[in-house]
Amino acid sequence: MYDVIIIGCGVTGAAVAYQLARYDLRVGIVERFSDVACGATKANSAIMHAGYDPAPGKVMTPLNLRGIRLGKEIARKLDVEYRPLQSLVIAFSERDMETVRTLYERGLANGVNVKILDREQVHAAEPSLNPDVIGALWTDDSAIINPWEYATAMAEVAVLNGAELFLEHKVTGIVRDGDALTVVTDRGEFRTRYVVNAAGCHAADIMRMVGDDRLTQTNFQGQYFVLDKAEGAKVNSVIFGCPDEKGFKGILVSPTVHGNLIVGPNSDPVASAETLGTDAATLDRIKASGLRYVPSINFRNVIRQYAGVRPTTNVKDFVIDVSPACGRMINLASMASPGLSAAAAVGERAAELLAGAGLELRPRASFSDSRPPVVRFASLDAEGRRAVIEKNPLYGRIICRCETVTEGEIVDAINRPIRPRTLDAVKRRCRAGMGRCQGGFCSPRVHEILARELGVKMEDIRLTEEDSFIITGKTKE
What we know:
By secondary structure, this protein is an alpha+beta fold. It contains twelve helices and 22 strands. It has three domains: about 1-85 and about 140-220 and about 310-370, FAD/NAD(P)-binding domain (3-Layer(bba) Sandwich), CATH 3.50.50.60; about 85-140 and about 225-270 and about 280-295, D-Amino Acid Oxidase, Chain A, domain 2 (2-Layer Sandwich), CATH 3.30.9.10; about 380-460, Orthogonal Bundle (Arc Repressor Mutant, subunit A), CATH 1.10.10.
């Protein structure tokens, strides 16, 4: 019998597991994908939003503000790639400036450090912006982060403190049985006292399993360009356009924590959370918007396009509550933007709701709020590189030349508390394959190392999810 089963291990589910790891509980996490952070957490803008956008009175507003403060501390404590970065909401017209002033007043009400910049100030702050920009909202309360590392780090702490993670377990039903629930998956059943629904784009489906039909999932897809590091210094801020009349924030132009530049996303409704393809027409629209913001972006330096789906519902706010249909289920639904920013605070709130629903939270005497250190060879100076190579010669073998990732880092990634099973999972752990050639040179070697470390045949290694096998056997046998 589990005390809590968490459904979903994106950044929200991971944050819940991280908070519950502090208590003497038996916690299980069921995740439909082959790795953590594979839904909306894997494919987003990686922005820790300052908090000027949510309107006062919304559920998300205080969670956004507390979440970014907790997130900064968690990133420091768990060595997650994180970079404070100012953001600008730029205006091309007087109508846009009205929106800027509205956001300014909202930011002040929310306690955010905001200013309105005039034409001269905004171009002094960002010389690469279109000369037609006439002003902007400025804040330095924002940041950028490695979103999948953020989620993975919190999940690792939970696992190290006893949480049990079950990957590739798709929830198919929930059965009520007195004072317990049975979570039914396609690979087994889990009996538990409480359930936390952190299923992202499938949260409304999970709610209906206990008779809670309040929400309709209305997910939106967003496509992005990733540009080479040659473009990464084009701007030194997160650049937003003004929200439109429907509240869509428009595309953004932003550096990443790894030195690349991203441009996107669109916001188009999709029928399925698995609608992850890109298309030329949408990408052309995004490119045009990006060039309107920053005309000097060279889109010949694009190295990747990707798409993510936001877990949106008919309620334009976070839905965080004890289900009225089942007092043993905590819902964390409609976790679209600023879901990444708010995640750590949402984890806290989930623990509070569980306590209010009757779960006893006794502090765990042996709780350890840490995870194994991460070696990032590319960021070390010459002395640091010599030191790690002396300890382990595998750090002296460069496997991914684009990102300067060594065999030692790949082996470390494979042997962390949550072991990656696929090439894409290794890539998210240590960036092998994320550079200019997108794994064209290093993938076969990473494939070989992963099979070796897991003790399986190379034919058993997949690129990502099921049926994405890379090889089926030798060509000459």
